[in-house]
Fold this protein.
Amino acid sequence: MRIFSGIQPTGRKHLGNYIGAIVQYVSSQDRGEGFFCIVDLHAITVAYDPAELRQRTYDTTAILLAAGLDPARCTLFRQSDVPQHTGLTWLLSSVTELGRLQRMHQFRDKSLAQRELVPAALLLYPVLQAADVLAYRAHEVPVGEDQREHLELMRDVARRFNARFGDGEDVLVVPEHRIPQVGARVMDLQDPTRKMSTTGGSEQGTVYVLDEPKAIEKKLKSAVTDSGSEVRRASDKPGVSNLIEILAAVRGSDPAAVEAELAQARYGELKAAVATAVVDYLAPVRERYERLRADEDALEQILSDGAVRAETIAAETLADVRERMGVGGPRRARTVT
Ligand code: AQP
């Protein structure tokens, strides 16, 4: 089975990214052939600093390696190193409905946040994401809950392509999303009605993977809780529910088990337990990160080796898609030259 997921090179990955996505990438190495992509071309769809982008790509690469991605067991690469992603984006945009792109939640939220320019790239973001996954004919895409809408779009794009150009064959694989049972949507600690987020959240409500233990403790101990005093999940208890979910996710246990264990506890005890668990959970990742991040040449080597492996597969898919769409010369002639 082939597994694909992409992650933005923001460098400051947070606990939501970690639990919702990165942990799944690591465990998927035992289940299939993983392709994990640092999506620098997605990162340029909002305002960004060109001088920083490369550095943040190395930061994110080092975080993924520190979390447990093993370049001997998966393919880790940078999106812009594999030109087939952008080539396929254009081809797939011809089977993507414009109105659907305009209605995407992420496009609407992020375009409102742009002060100077809403770039067309922001609108096309989900098509590039579809190309990322479909280029590898991936069967499974591990992501957090916030990506559900984008995943549905890419499934429809694959289906529409197959219906229009497949001539009865499934040229593109319609991928399944894999959303974790616990921690699929980690919420902001200061506003638990919003997801923990790199761009939209509060600094105090966002735990970063590379935060110092003291900062993590402070953020978790000052997490907003709800009225009442019972430690249990409920729709009118978003703060407490979030803390229970986080504790269950980092322990690898069930939220119901956490509720049973802390049934007699106060909110303060719940926060202290979560703080300790998260500090212990992230400390080894941070230590490994420091060592890995120091060697940029090694990180670059891992990314370029990964890109060579990735390109072999993406080029094959792109050639099939071009052939089916009647774009360019016949496939045989192209490969002979
Ligand atoms: N709060 C979250 N809980 C669970 N999973 C989450 N993810 C993001 N936020 C949460 C998952 O993390 C993966 C990588 O995300 P990304 O780096 O591509 O960024 P994103 O999805 O745009 O989320 P961010 O980091 O919070 O950035 P903004 O502020 O831009 O939304 C994805 O699989 C995502 O589902």
